[in-house]
Structures are given as structure tokens and as C-alpha cells.
Amino acid sequence: MSANKYIPLPVIKRLPRYHRFLGMLKEKGVDRISSSELSRQMGLTASQIRQDLNCFGGFGQQGYGYNVVMLYDEIGSILGVNNIKKAILIGAGNLGQAIARHMTFSKWGFELIGIFDENPALQGKELRNNIIMPTADAPDFCEKNSPDLAILCVPNTEEVAEMIEKLVESGIKAFWNFTHIDIKAKHPEIYVENVHLSDSLVTLCYQLNSDIE
Amino acid sequence: MSANKYIPLPVIKRLPRYHRFLGMLKEKGVDRISSSELSRQMGLTASQIRQDLNCFGGFGQQGYGYNVVMLYDEIGSILGVNNIKKAILIGAGNLGQAIARHMTFSKWGFELIGIFDENPALQGKELRNNIIMPTADAPDFCEKNSPDLAILCVPNTEEVAEMIEKLVESGIKAFWNFTHIDIKAKHPEIYVENVHLSDSLVTLCYQLNSDIE
Fold this sequence. Notes:
alpha/beta; six-stranded parallel beta sheet; three-stranded antiparallel beta sheet; 11 strands
């Protein structure tokens, strides 16, 4: 089955979670799973899962459950993870290095083709099969190599805000944004996923504090 | 003004963002900001901001705008960031090391008092003023030192699922969870913030892919 164009947006938004979950089952060697077991493990209702998965063919057989590998591959194909897109990383400090080393980019549809840092001590060093280049070279690199995604693991400075403008001009279409700079406000056409680590930490702080009072 | 107990939940959920934003203004040396300027920068409506900030006194003066430092401190006090709570980190691999080095824990209400890893090559090494200890020692450490929060930067294994059970038994009240293990399903009373990095990456993959098709 090829990707169905008419999947409702709320289902689309749940797909990364299904994909991640089925990937874990696949790694564990699970062949088949019932919608009720999947619902128990995922914390969704079984009818929700049946409805969602019916949107693209289902792969469920009454009494046999879902074929884990087929479903994983199908959702992966809808998400486009086999259509590898090029990504660059701006910032090879602690966070950037962790992202470069920790993430299996190819599993999520990306290949890291360039890493940049403004620290001369890092430039020229190797990280995940890339030689770290000066950040100022990133726009030129983008014009030559046409990456789609820029991963921003840098501090929230004016220079970074200016670099974002240059990257957009050089053809970057999406940002995985670990900074607190609001890219979407200025560029509504660009895809942005913000990861605000401190927001989740301070939420826990608030919850624990409410307990204490 | 002391923390107001009757702040509506939707406002509470926006507080980390206000706090982060005001912190950035404070660092830039901005003394006062109008609700319209704050709204422009934060992408919220000015009336939304006035309503939100009125919930805890406001600190706005007609024609003068908000006092950035006072508002930052007040929101920080509601969030409890000055009431430092103890945290431990499980997993000192790439991601754990980045989290330990990258996050200014004290700014978000926490102190990192113990770091654990099951890799003997890491044990005994120093990381952010902590000597890395064997993961198996974590439950004992929790019983003796009563941390509130455990940060999980480990793979999604059965052993980690078992360790989570032991940590809950040893008094851990909150998890900052970088694994894909669903802690809340088994422990609804525990505070959990999940950070699923791959979900946001694969969302970008999907969006870029829809463009291509």
C-alpha cells in the first residue's frame, strides 16, 4: 500500500509515537500484537488504535492482531523515513555532540552531512563522520549541498538569530530548534520543531514545589 | 507578593515560557517591556499576556510596561526555582553527559547530587562535580539522600524498567524521562515529563516529505 493522502491530521500527529512503539516491538522480536495489547502498552484505547490504523489499511486480522513489521514499515513509509533527507548541525558543544552521537538519524529519515561550530578549538575535529567547520561557512555550504534541515544546538544570541536568516536564504526548509529563538514568528512557511528542555525541567520543579507547600 | 494558589492551570502551563522569556530579557539588560512588545516577541496576544500576568499581581503600570526583573523573580517564585530540590542522573553516556554539562540546574530549581552509569569505564570519573557511581547503587543512594527527581538518559531496556520501579520504591517523586518507557501508565501519582527527541525529528521528516511529494 502506498501512502494515503487523506489521513486526518490528529492521526498524523500520533504516527511518530506508533512508529517508535512498533520499532521497539520489532527490536524485541514481537511478530504480532493485538489492538488491546497495543492499547495497554501505549495508553490509548483499543478502539482509538483500530480507528487510527484503519486509516491506512490496518494490517489487523480478527483474532490474529497486527503484523508488527508490516505496520512499522507502512507507518515509516507514510512518515517518509526511507526517503533520506540531508541535515546540518549548527553547534558542536555538549548538546550538539550528544545529538550527533546519540541520534540514529537514518532511522528518522535524515543524514547528517555537515557540522559547524564557531569555536576554533573544535573546527577540524571529527564528529560522527563529519569534520567540524566554521559556522560562518554554513550558508555557503547550504547553497552548494542543499540540506533541508538545520539542527540548532547553540546559545540564544543575536549572531544565531542572524545565522538563521542566512540559512533560510540559503534554502533551509526546516529547523530542529534547541535554542529559544522563535523562528516561526518570522518565517511561518518554515517547518520548526522546538525542543525547550528547560520548560519540562521547570514544570517538574513547579509540580514538586506544589507538593511541598 | 507570595505565590497565589488560585492561578488557573492554562496560565501555569504558560509560566515556564514567560519565565524563560523574561530571563532572556533580563540577561540582555532590558528593564521594562510593554505587553504589546512582549506579545510581539512571544507570539501571544497582548490581552492574553495582560490577563495571564494579572493572575499574580501584574507588575504592569499603564504606559510604563512591566518591570522585567520583578516579574521574572515573581514567576520564578511561583515555579519554585529558588526552592532547590535534589536530582540524580541515571545514564552518563552522550546524552546524559550533555544534559549534565548543558543545563544550568540551579536556574530551574534543581541540584544534581548523584550520577550513575552501568558502564564500569565511566564509574569513578568526574562529571559536573559528581563522581559517577554504578547504577545498581542508585536505590540505596536515594534512600540515604532523598532526591526528588531522577533524570533518565538510558536505553529502553527491561533493566531500566526494573530500575524505575526500584527508584519509585526508594522515594523518587518525579522523572525527567528521555527513555520511551511509559512511567505514568504504571505510576499515575508520579510526575513525569517525557522528552521524546525522535518524535520531533520524525515530524520534521514527515513535513519535509509532504513537500517533496
